[in-house]
Amino acid sequence: MDSTRAALLYVSNRVADLPKGDYERQLVQKRRTDSIYAARSAGVMEFRKVTYASRADGMTIPAYLFAPLAKRGAKGHPALVWVHGGVHSDWGTAMFPFVREAVQRGYVVITPDYRGSTGYGAAHHDAIDYGGKEVDDAISAVDFLKTLPYVDMDRLGMMGWSHGGFITAHTLFRTDHPFKAGAAIVPVTNLVFRLSYKGPGYQRDYAAEEGIAGLPFEKRAEYIRRSPVFHAANLKVPMLVHVATNDEDVNYVEDQQMVYTLRALKPDLAETKIYTDPAPWGASVGHAFSRRVDPVTLERVDSPEQIDSWNRTWTFFEWTLRPYEDRSKPLPPVRTAP
Q1: pLDDT tens for residues 205-240?
Q2: What number of CA atoms fall less than 13 Å from residue 202's CA on the CB side?
Q3: Number of domains in the chain
Q4: Which letter, b or e, does each residue of 158-173 get, where b requires 16 or more Cβ atoms within 10 Å of its Cβ?
Q5: What CATH number should be reported for the domain holding residue 169?
Q6: Contact 316, 240 (CB under 8 A)
Q7: Which of 17, 93, 280, 332 has the fewest beta carbons under 10 Å from its own?
Q8: CB 52 within 8 A of CB 61
Q9: pLDDT tens by residue, 254-278
């Protein structure tokens, strides 16, 4: 075999061979993101950095917390656990206008930088566990929300885009979880298919993880366990899924599997919409169709598809989580006939 081609095809299953990050640059970028959020949130919403312990193993998970400046009182607000996308990524500034909208609608928002996220050094970055403990890290954010008296723990939702949608789907398909509803936009769905479709360059990011240690043909059961599409039958709460036919990251042929599976198995719980070739935005084309934000002003750059997707998403959560209800106030007495 040609040695160059052999090198291109080789995929290690050793943890030591996982790709490394530029940790110092990531730390600098995270400090910049923290500063931008602090400045942009001033006078608009409460913003602070928090930490909590993962239910998986006690690992410290950092997160951003956003809340209305004027709190309604005990159990006055629903909350969203909002999961960032990207495999090695973090909660970035481009989500600012959307999280601001959520807070203005009455939600408290927590955004976990689960294990594998960037901006916290080598140990946090290299602890990546794709479709494994990272899901527990995100779910564990509710343990911090429990410490906030103004959060109604009976009105919890989860949402995410791309890899965040993957974690959201995993969570909603578990037998037991604390969420009343969730939204997964352009989500990763099937790792067996995805690693095959993307090839060795993509496979190297996952096959060497400690919890996986191999490719799908070697660890078939493990990849099926880590692929949410195979667990959709477990869905018990309302779920919204939006996908795009011109997505060049989570390609439509992958998301098609999730949409059709939900339509077949959970037609009464799943609200799905396929956007046909939405207006392109950046290098990811359709993948970012509902996350179009000016990088300087941090304001939405709306397209018809983005407006429609967000209108549907907010309406979905309004039906399921009732963000405008102030449950800190007693209900009026029931009037009975004389």
Answers
A1: 888 888 898 999 999 999 999 999 999 999 999 999
A2: 15
A3: 1
A4: bbbbbbbbbbbbbbbb
A5: 3.40.50.1820
A6: yes
A7: 332
A8: yes
A9: 999 999 999 999 999 999 999 999 9
